[in-house]
Task: structure prediction
Amino acid sequence: MLRRQATIASERLPGGEVARGDRVAQSEEAGAAPVSYLAAAGAAAAAIAAAVALVVGDGLARGVSWRYHEVASAAPLFLVAAAIAAASLRRRPTGVSAVMRLGEIAAFSVWGAAQLWPTSGAGGGLNDLAVVLFVGGSGYLVLSDVRPHLSARRSRVGSAPARRREPLSTRESPRDVV
Result:
């Protein structure tokens, strides 16, 4: 039995605002997961398995490089980028969330590409770009999380700073003034 339901996607933005996005059409059989969710889950599971295989393979090789190490290093990163993209297809983020999601996909993809060419000049530049994307996105998330708390604290304290009084021992007393 096929059912169709339209909902409004909403996400909380930094500062407590609520962004209303485009309508998200949900068309699925009762109890069946959408294909994009299955693809996202499959890519995420494959990424985890590939990462574990990479760690085990590196441990068994004991520092000796093996033939397809670059591809094995890049595979989990590309799979995570694919999982994020597939998950985004079903419930499309809007505004800042969409930019953040694209940044995550780009960061994992660039990092994966850097793993394919570790000794070339392009590999170093791609690694640097991946660092910038990860740090920029993570820094924005931290700042957006603490911003409401900082502004709330500032409003409680008031706009005028409290005047500090000097201790009595450093102030002049009336009898010291001649």
